[in-house]
Amino acid sequence: MRNLDMTALRSFVAVAETGGVTKAAGSLNLTQSAVSMQLKRLEEMLDIALLDRSARQIGLTPQGEQLLSYARRIVTLNDEVYGKLTATAFEGEVTLGVPHDIVYPVIPRVMQRFAAAYPRVRIHLVSSYTRKLIDDLNRGQIDIILTTEDSVGTGGETLVKLPLVWVGAPGGQIWKQRPLRLAYEQRCIFRQYVQRRLDDAGIPWEMVVDSNSTRTIEATVSADLAVHTMLEGTSPRHFEPIQHGGALPRLLDLNINMYRNGVKDGPVMTDLSKFIRDGFCALGAPVMA
After folding, report:
1. How far is 148 from 259, CA to CA, in rounded Å?
2. Please, what are the domains in the chain?
């Protein structure tokens, strides 16, 4: 397989467009001899004459005219690819970590607001579990995180306190079945607490979905095959709070906390924190310091 020399093609296009080696050399910041050598190499590679040197001004042969059309496209595509893959489209990046179950409805609006305020700063969203997000923040892998906790750790800020509520399929009836069918991620921090509350209330239960896939949980619950728990106001549209009238135990209130690692402190982080704070405070009464 033989490949065309991109530098030689660029020189050929420059000569054709400027009408001579001297002008082409000046536009390419090369010597005349270097341009002439590249043209000769291209002709030898293709085994055709590209330039008509019989007249005082260099012209193109029929084969040269045909190559010029291709060469322009090749050079343009080369420059487009190089520019696309090497250009710094963003002036910075901020990594935001959020637990799976509180991404909606606030975080999309936060990201939209941030993008409008800082169009050249990329916001990278990481969705995981509270424990892992805290570990990643401490290792410096994430700039700012949200957590769901029953208290707040050192350096954290509680944005809002929300009740944990039972959720199921819209109009679902599976919550009436005993044993109560549960669906939880394996690392969900609510899981063991909910099991204890059911045990204390004397309500038998079974874990029908034990998975690390949030989508699996959502599909099972929305099909009215199990119930789940989420912070009030954060459930997706295909869930709804269960109006159980006291048939299921009341659950605790939990904090949504915010932590920053402090490395990128400045206007960008200050504004992102404000956008997050505004979004979550709209879900309930903000916690006063």
Report:
1. 11
2. 6-86 (1.10.10.10), 88-289 (3.40.190.290)
